[in-house]
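Summary for the steering committee. One of the milestones for this cycle was to obtain a three-dimensional model of the protein with MF3 bound, which we needed before selecting residues for the alanine scan. The sequence and ligand used are listed below.
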Amino acid sequence: MNSLYDIYNIKLVSNIVSEMLIYISKFIKPGISTGEIDYICHNRIINYYKAYPASLGYMNYPKSICTSVNDVVCHGIPRFNKYLRNGDIINIDISICKNNYYSDASKMYFVGNPSIKSINLCKITKNSIFKALKIVKPGNKISLLGFIIQNYVEKFGYSIVRDYCGHGIGKKLHQKPNILHYKNNYNFIFKEGMVFTIEPMVNIGNYRTKLMKDGWTVKTVDKSLSAQYEYTVLVTNKGYKILTKF
Ligand code: MF3
Ligand code: CO
C-alpha cells in the first residue's frame, strides 16, 4: 500500500496533469491538428514542469498524449495532418511521471459547437463517474463501480466499453487492481491509501470496439460517437479524494 510519502508525490504529479488539462483547453479550436496539441503538451510537460509524458515510449507508443476524436474510443495517436473540425468532440488523455510517480487523467473538449447529442453523451459519461464514486470507501467491493456505471449509462440508451479498464496507479502507470466499468464479479475491496483511475468509455451505439492498423487507435465498430473522462482517485479513511481536479 502507499505510504504518506508516496501519496505526497502522487498528489504532486496529479496537480501537473490537472493543470495540463486546463491549460490545453484554450488551443482546442477548429483548424488545430492533434499533432500540434501533442507538441504543445510535450514541451510544457518537459520544459515547464520538468516531468515526463508517461505515454511516450510506453509499449512503443509514439506520442506524448492520446487524442481521441468522435468515434475513436481511446488511444488516438496525434498527427500533424489530423485537423479538428467544428462539431468534433475530442478526448485528451495525459499521463505524467514526476519523481518516479505517475498520474493519469483525461477529459472531453468541444470543438466549436457540437450537437446536443454529443454534449449529452459527454455529460452522462462524466456523471457516471460521480455516481459510481459514491461507493468508494475502505471495505467496499470495487466491482460495485461497474454495476453503477453500466446501469446508469444504459438508462440513456448508451453502452459501456468492455475492452479497456481503469487501473491502480502510483509507482507504475498501470498496476493492480483492474477497475472494470461494466458488471463483473471481481473480488477486490478498496483499502485506505489505494490510488486508482476510473475512466469509463461510453458509446452512443454498441459497446464493441476495433483496433486500427496503427496498433493503437481504438474505434467503435458501428462508427458511433464515444466519450471518456478519467480521474486519478485516492481512497481515504472515510471515502475518496479526486487527485486530478480539472
Ligand atoms: N492514459 C492511458 C490510460 O488511461 C494510457 C496511456 S499509455 C498509451 O491508461 F500508451 F496508451 F498512450
Ligand atoms: Co488510465
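Key point for the committee: The pocket of cobalt (II) ion (ligand 2) is lined by residues 104, 167, 197, 199, 230 (CB under 6 Å).
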